[in-house]
Amino acid sequence: MPLSKPLTAKIIVISDYVIDGVRPDEVGPAAVELLATFGVDVGEPIAIPENKEAISVALKTTIEQGYDIIITAGGVGLKPNNLTPEATRPFLNAELPGIATQVLLEGIKNDSHAGLARGLVGVTGRNDTSALVVNSAGCVDGITDTITVIGPLLSDIFQQLGRS
């Protein structure tokens, strides 16, 4: 059963390269386009630096703004500044490791390096005002794998949270 109103989403691109102008943001626009195919109303992506404080502030602000879905793209690897999961975990009331595993399996079908990603998936609460937070790899293939998995589950996730 479809939800009575469209879901809203915000994409947070975590990349020093994008912030420094070394490379254009290709991930944010790809995520917007993919989420729109699932009927999600997506705000303009934002880019932030690769540090835990910036990620925490962006997550806190975006949650407070009332977005239903928050997708971070980047910072899920093993480099010292890849701290997206560590910054995300305090905001999650319940992790959804099954969905994170589905994203991993989808990624591995396309690239064996997908197994190096440590992204989390979870919800900020267990009620109708809760947000879904998803950490994705910071590349177009990674965001594609992530949204391919979560897109078909969005209605069920939000219905379980009490949305109608």
From TrEMBL:
Membrane-traversing stretches: none
Q: Which InterPro entries match?
A: MoaB/Mog-like_dom_sf, MoaB/Mog_dom, MPT_Adenylyltrnsfr/MoaC-Rel
Biological process annotations from GO? Mo-molybdopterin cofactor biosynthetic process
MoaB/Mog domain ranges (all copies): 10-157
User: Pathway of this protein?
Assistant: Cofactor biosynthesis; molybdopterin biosynthesis
Q: What superkingdom does the record give?
A: Bacteria
Q: Name one Pfam family in it.
A: MoCF_biosynth
**Keywords assigned:** Molybdenum cofactor biosynthesis
Designated name of the protein: Molybdopterin binding domain protein
